[in-house]
Amino acid sequence: MPSPDLCTEAEVHDLVHTFYASVRNHAQLGPIFNAHVRDWDRHLATMVDFWSGALRGTARFRGTPMPKHVALPGLSADLFRQWLTLFQATTATLPNAAMAERANDLAERVAASLWYGYQMSRQAESLPQEL
Fold it and tell me: Which domain holds residue 63?
């Protein structure tokens, strides 16, 4: 369950900004994100709201991530795994171990859900593959 006692807003901000800095510089993920994120400041603020809600229960996030991800061409399970690997590398540097553990659990569920939805939007006649 999200809890305001789990972490601070500053910790959420640092997680999001550190993580997406690594995404932007990643050989495979960077070109995808950089081609589709038109306003990084806005995207980062949205992601801070998302993770603040997921970790602290702030309920500021207003969005529908599935349609945005489904619209992207050429995604693969490997790209989702790379996203998770970068996320876990970022959380491994956090001094707040409880936040890192909760964030990793949530990131795995988010990635699996988005990958499942992505596959279903493209090949509804076959069974989706797990990450």
Answer: 9-122
Cβ neighbors of 103 (< 8 A, separation 6 or more) are 15, 51, 54, 55, 87, 91, 94
Q: Cβ distance 57 to 2 under 8 Å?
A: yes
pLDDT in tens, 4-28: 999 999 999 999 999 999 999 999 9
Report how far residue 101's alpha carbon sits from residue 119's, in angstroms, rounded to the nearest whole number. Answer: 27
**How far is the C-alpha of 20 from the C-alpha of 48, rounded, in Å?**
11
| CATH code for position 100 | 1.10.490.10
**Residue pair 6/55 in contact by the 8 Å Cβ criterion:** yes
